[in-house]
Amino acid sequence: MERLLVVEKLAKRYEHGPLLGTKGIVTALQGVSFSIGRGATLALVGESGSGKSTLALCIACLERPTSGRIVFDGNEIATSDDKRLREVRPQIQLVFQDPARSLNPRFTAIDLVSEPLLVQGRLDKREREDRARGLFAKVGIRQEKALYRVAEFSGGQRQRLAIARALALEPKLLILDEALSALDCSVQAQIANLLVELQVSLGLTYLFITHDIAMAGHLADEIALMEQGRVVEFGLADKVLRAPDHVATRRLISTAPRLGAAAPALRVV
Amino acid sequence: MRYFLLRLTHAVFLLIGVSILTFLFSTLAPGNYFDEMRLNPQISAEMVAALRAQYQIDRPLPERYGRWVNSFLHGEMGFSFAYNSPVAPLLWVRARNTLLLTMTATLIAWALAFPLGIWSAATVGRLPDRSIFGATAILLVIPDLVLALGLLIMAVRSGWFPTGGMVSVAYESLSTLQKFRDVAWHMGLPVLVLVLSALPILVRHVRAAVAEVLDAPFLRAAASHGIRRRTLLYQYALRAAANPLISLFGFSVGSLLSGSLLVEVVMGWPGLGPLLLEAILARDVYVVIGGVLCSTVFLVVGNFIADLLVYWADPRIRTGAVAR
Amino acid sequence: MIPCNGWKRWLFALVVLHGIIGCAGFFAPYDPSEQDRERPYLPPMKIHMVDKEGRFHFRPFFYSLHLRVGSFDQFREGTEQAIPFRFLVTGAPYRLFGIVPSRLHLFGAQASRIYLFGSDAYGRDQLSRILYGGQISLLAGLLGAGLTLFFGVLIGAIAGFYGGWRDGLLMRVAELFVALPWLYLLFALRAFLPLSVSPLQAFFLIVVVVGSVSWARPARLVRGVVLSARERDYARAARGFGATDGYLLRRHILPETSSVILTQAAILVPQFVLAEMTLSFLGLGVPDPVPSWGSLLSSLQQYSVLVSYWWMYLPALAIVPFFLGYLGLASALQQGAGTGEIEERV
After folding, report:
1. Residues whose CB falls within 8 Å of the CB of residue A263, separated by 6 or more in sequence, listed in order
2. What is the pTM of this model?
């Protein structure tokens, strides 16, 4: 399968400290390598602090990595200049975890979803509105609610709006950073199904970041496990769940409430 | 120790900054004392020129500033054109009077604010709290100029307080005790105005800080141990509420200082205020700079003391656990 | 957002108060500079409905005041002639809002001058002077607050949005300004500007001076809001689809500052009106004959006026309802925003 995204030895270090003092260094990513097939879903699993979100920001071109390569659709983007980045960025979109924080509560639904189009300067007002309404239909938001403010929607509906917004620029890769974690169980299932439908109908590639390995198993074709800034396990979902190589993977599987019971053989010794 | 040095350097930078600022302002003057003198037909042009040379007004600004800093560090603060005397002695006398007034007002205001605030916090929602709240609201709405003038008029018509100056005419012939009472009597009205204008804010802050602490679990635990209510209030609650109040203290010094300027002028108290005003009207540059700097010094010192108090009172700062 | 409804009531009250001052020409019976040297320092005249013979009149009336024989500050009413109070009279010409010419006044009297608030040394009507003076003082307050907020928002936004050395530098300077005794700095600034200027120049001088001293606190507050707004996920997301800095500031960040700005405005305006009053009172502000609340009070610096002519104090009370309105508004806004902080009055 052709690889849409290839990440090689990606590293990211942050400095922190006072303006005129000694600075401490935090290494968020220590040399991460993996890839995603076109039209497939890769689940990136790891506990908090493992560097998942930093990775997402780097791939989405919102942060520059300290070293390493990111190749998207044949283009090297880790070291590209700004002009190049501006062309590539619209093709990679991010859906955040908490829709309460990632959507400006004062915006109306239609303004929110058409914001990327407005910012990119394409299309006039009428066309933007039409496009937004089309997206409403795709994610299951009723048209009458177009002028409601974001604050008036429920959590699940807001996440739908977030997805709609992410689709506005017709991206190839969608990064879902814990996009289901803040939702109720039943809503999670609904949104997960929506995502699967959209993947099929629009030919999207997903990078699905989560700490829930059971969900990863459900949705992903391949799984990569991160621990302390490194990828410690990478392979087809089936294989990783049934016969993991790394200790960390095993530990995660055994503690996962749904999988643990069904796989007694994987208990950590 | 490090904290102390940090705050000290901070204070020094502040003073340097203020001195530069005020010195800079003086260059913005499109006219100065000498231009106005030139307009006076009684003073000859040569005299003006000679005076200008003597005060070296024509030198470049950084040089003048440097000289001024130099002489300042030697205790010399320039020359007053209007009084025809060095600035420093003029300032000291007035500054002393202002300090006397401001310190007394601060002490009395805080001494009143604490019991009122605590009482208010302890009786939240009930009559004492509501009446105190109402009284502070009324005082907040009346600006100090209005208050000062109003009280002055009442004093003048009723003759209760003297309305000007710091001492009576016969001051020199009084005994020490009588001198003390004389000054206190003259101080009564200005102090009253300052206290009344500062009180509402202080009372409200004390009330807020104590009320917040009164809800804390540790206090309930102490109460359940059977500790007396008064001890609870004054020793336990106050300690915990101390931190924001001490910061407020530093701030209140500043606002009382600003307020005292106006009150001194209105009430005729011979402090920095009237001196500054006269100097402004007479374009007496060095006195103005000296006066502004003097009050800033008081302010900075007051804040610095407040910082030290916070340091002493709050062990968290000592261990650097709380970022300032 | 500002959900609480209480603030609307305060705003309405303030609008009414400002409206009265704005239409000073209509509410004031006379032109503020109109002198009457024959009637200096007259006390306020009483309005009667019942005359000395016990007859009730529907139309209120007043008596003119005459000095008692042998006294120079005791007055008696000239009860021989009842001078009727007239409403909606034609009087001295004025321009409403500076544009619309009119001669209509709310009330007045034909035969004699009526001094509801007394008269000053030149026989000018105090009530009219208070109303017109309010225009100057309030305008100075509003413009000064506007200037301060403009600088405060500008500097706070730059510091908060860009961070780094700009933030550090600007906040250090702000600390400097906050630490200074406000009134002293104001005076010093005023000191170094020319003393004798035309009233118009004096007015703008005051506005600029007052406005440029107090930007530090609003700047700090705005910076805090901008800093936290910048880190929000939705700001990040907008950057993710290519938003420019300007767009981010305009649509996502600055709207968050609106409640801070409004609350600060409600606190600053009365402070600046008071500052103008103080400066004018001390002779450093708007000079005669232009009336401002402060200069109206300056005669009280003379002992004789202080003792004998208590009505010269009335302009001081004029500011109290405005203070009440603005502080009430600020308080309501703060409660609505949930900060509940007691703002310090500098």
Report:
1. A241, A242, A253, A254
2. 0.79
Do you find a cis peptide bond into B62, omega within 30 degrees of 0?
no
DSSP string, C74-94: -EEE-TTSPEEPEEEEEEEEE
Closest alpha carbon within chain C to A60: C240
Return the SS3 of A97. Answer: coil
The CA angle C137-C143-C149, to the nearest 5 degrees, is 135
Residue with tokens 């780094």: C164
Q: Is residue A241 a contact partner of residue A220, using CB atoms and an 8 Å limit?
A: no
For chain A, what are the domain ranges? 3-255
Which one of A103, A106, A165 has the shortest CB-CB distance to C255?
Answer: A106
Q: What is the pLDDT of residues B239-283, one digit of tens each?
A: 767 777 877 887 788 778 878 888 998 888 888 888 888 887 777
R_g of chain C computed on alpha carbons: 25
Could you give phi then psi for residue A23, rounded to 5 degrees? Answer: -105, 140
* CATH for the A3-255 domain, from 3.40.50.150, 3.40.50.300, 3.30.572.10, 3.40.640.10: 3.40.50.300
Neighbours of B82 (CB within 10 A): 14
Contact B273, B262 (CB under 8 A): yes
What is the token pair recorded at A1? 């399968």
Quote the Cα angle for C240-C243-C249, to 5°.
Answer: 120
Q: In the predicted model, what is the mean pLDDT of chain A?
A: 83
Judge whether A90 is closer than 8 Å to chain C, CB to CB.
yes
User: Which residues in chain A are closer than 8 Å to C3, comparing Cβ atoms?
Assistant: none
Chain B residues touching residue C279 (CB < 8 angstroms): none
